[in-house]
Predict the structure.
Amino acid sequence: MKGKRAAAAILLLSAQANADPADWSHLTKFAGTYPAAGLMKSPLIKHEITALLTPNQQALLSEMSVSPPISLIGPDLLAQFCLPHDCGAQSAALIIDPAAQTLWFGFYDNHGQTFHTNWSATADPATIPSAILDQLAKIHSPF
Amino acid sequence: MQQVFATIEQWVAANNKSQNHSNELVIALIWKESGFDDATKNPKSTATGLTQMTIPAVDDVNRNTPHGVHFAFADMLDGPQNIQCGTYYLDMIYHRAGGDITSGLNRFGTGAGYATNILAAEKCLLAAKGSNKVINPAAAKACLFNIHP
């Protein structure tokens, strides 16, 4: 009996290890959870972030430890991050389109009179869905 | 969830328990701490909600507030309760700082310099108040967008 259970466990682990790395559909399960609780621990997202962001950006992201739960906007995920004690002025947004296996990362900076968003992405930032951009505008300026 | 300025303004007016900090100061602090999102959490520090109250801070409030006033840490995800607890806490550290607003705020946040742009935004918001005691959202935006590193 023990042998059968061990074999089943090995098969399960093997199946997980051989899961299609290109399959992003499982990421939608993180909707409604906090980014640090699961999404940012996902090997897929860790790999993409390492490939996409500079070391300085990765360091800044790790400082941005304040987040609301991840939103599902249409088919896309939106995770937000901001700096402790400077949440209104500096933030980052991670947008994931699981179906297209596309990811956009934007660092937003509000200096009062000037505004900057520095995008790093696997697709042109001009193709970010308009519903996501509308939501980001409301987050950046809830007035 | 992300709240708009008018909601935060109403919640603060109804829930500010501080005897020493204006509603405008509390609004500026909330913008700096959470960007008006009442669901924010910082897993590194346990800071939660609009004023980013931590577990030790909530415990401190519960030890020092009048009989019958008690907050569960889970309440910190509720905007109005977070404001009540956070403003009780602001008053506590104000008194511990010898009645000095700047020192008290610095203790609430990151130390020296934390209070500077909050106090500037408070002054700006007070000046923007109309005769009906309501702050025009566009004017509020101009005041709060000056809170940046």
Observations:
- Chain B touches chain A through 34 residues (CB under 8 Å).
